[in-house]
Amino acid sequence: MADRKQTIIYVDMDHVLCDYAEGFSRQKDLFPDLQFPQSEEPGMYIGLNPLPGAIESYHWLNDLPETDV
Length: 69
Prior knowledge:
By secondary structure, the chain is mostly helical. The protein has one domain. It contains three helices and two strands; from the N terminus they run E-H-H-H-E. A two-stranded parallel sheet has the order 1-2. The protein is elongated and about 50 Å long. The chain starts with 6 loop residues before the first strand and ends with a strand.
């Protein structure tokens, strides 16, 4: 497979790898006066929890020799 190109796969974080809704709700509770707490106050993305099976699925895709995740 050395002469074959890998398929590039881009994986979104929000609602794919991480529970964005839960993180947004938590951030909004911390900063109720901010309209966009996810971008106006640092820290939301670092604290997002993974969705069930997301980490394992990411590793499965990443371990395939024909993909570049």
